[in-house]
Amino acid sequence: MTTATAARATATPTSRADGDDGRRTGWTTSLAGAIAGATARACVAPLDVIKIRMQVQLEEASTGKYRGLAHAVRTIVREEGARGMWAGTAPALMLWVPYTAIQFATLGVFNDAAAARERRRGETEATRSPLVGFVGGAVAGTVATVLTYPFDVMRTLLASQGHPKVYENVLDAARGVVRARGARRGLYAGLSVTLAEIIPASAVQFGSYAALKTRFPDVFGENDFACGFVAGTAARLVVHPLDVVKKRFQIAGFTRSLAYGARVDAAGYVNFAAAVRTIAKTEGVRGFYKGLTPSLIKSAPASAITFAVFEADAARKIASKTSTCAAPSARAVPREHCSSLSCARFRREYVRRDVPVVITGLRDVLTEDGADGERCAWLTRRAGNKKVAVTRDHGHRNSTASCASTDVVDLREYFDEVTKDASPGSYLYDVSVPLKLPTLTESIFLPKYFAHDYVQRTMRLTAFSRSWPSLFVAAKDTRSTLHVDQWQGHFFMAMIRGTKRWTVFHRDATPFLRPSWLRGTLDPAMPALEEQCASGLSEHAARWDVDLGPGEVLFVPGGAPHAVHNLDSTVAFAGNFVDDANLERALVDLKLMGLNQGERMMESFVALDEIDFDDATNLDDDDADDDDDAPLDPRDLVVAIDAHLARRP
To answer: Where in the numbering of this chain does the JmjC domain appear (predicted)?
Structure first.
């Protein structure tokens, strides 16, 4: 895992114990959407009250009861108390909880159908037209609106009535409306206008959200709140005039107190055309934009909160506790004890066959402290006073993370924070031991299974000659994105402390994991693993799962997409390597990277390409004959890092 890939890390799925490691059911999606809708509605209810009061006010702002946002707040609080700011919240929740649940569930069904169609046609999310997101949003908005519309009418009446109250509660309002207008004309007043509003609103909101997430990953990264904020603003600007017309339809003929201004005459709102003519004639174009300020202030954060909560682990975990989530079938990673696994057999049976493997039995020989290595005294003793850059608040998940999310601290200080669970969301990742922490080269030992790395054995020094191994120190419950390491490098990780949960896919599964190359790199960006599980992983995505514990070493084949979840505070060292199994793929990528990134990267390609690899025995001198059945001694299967780096040709 290179620094470049680690910097792009994002949240990956919860453990299977949380029930979030497989396909999310429709009920789970609906409940997550309901939680998101309720959260957003409770936060922005006061702005909704102000918006509605201003929208149904026929007078100009300069002469009306409410003369602006601040004036409206002062007036409502003075006349109705603080509770007045939440007038109509009960029907609003009755509206938005089922509305958002239905909306997200419908959108999920639509996206599942779209994804299934793409898989049948051999397409991926990277080639998906933005139109799909807009159509899906429109369909979801229409279904949710029709099923929940009566609550919208009740919300508007209760929020706009002021004092003295005409209706005491939702039930009273429903009875009054049915009595005055009938069930269809009363409870569904303005439905056609609402659909004319909600279809473009949902299309713009969901379509722009999806477009921002997929088309501008370097700008927005995994910032669901920012994407939702921009999407909500765009949707509101498009449909606000229709919202004003809808509100007038809903309260037409409503006999609220004249203290709140002229009443909306039902005669002027017999149909959509008549309503538009009435507003344009009596109030001008500005009439269609009454309440726009509180509407924007409300809609943008409401959209941001809705998307952020829906995407957040909290909503997913709460929802998953009430439903089961069947995980796609995953194979167990094979385990081999080092005493019976020679370097030659490792390369023959695992590396050249692209099969991950966990090597056990090396616990006592990975560090200079032997059996006590898990305590990590070697780490603080040798490098405790070294300064390291630590990302905070899960900043390592975002490729656009700024220096504001990074602290430079003593390694000893950070290790103490992590082991005491005093630094949630922090990560020290992919720090080169030879280049940044050279005092550790005498403390850790490289398993010889990976000592034949061609990149570190070239005649000339390159950008990667002394890059590995790298140190990883992570707080509990931090995660990486689903990603592929650059230039098809094989990867290994030796666990010293704690447990990491790994998910590894075969490299041929990459096309089925919705890869996107829009950011211009050879290693594609992919949606978070839990998102892919929610929409349904393809049966063609061959997958392995494994929990890697102290003293165990994992091999990940080059080009294999993988994701990691730190179940505990963890310490590990790791590295990439190239051998005969991935050499040709690595050379292709290195050359392309050199053409794109300049001379230094091209030098790495030239250095690797100029070696005569036909004489493989010169490089694979650890490939001893493994016909002997005698157990191998773990001490003979590791080499000190400083000694390994000194073995240059």
So the answer is: 435-594
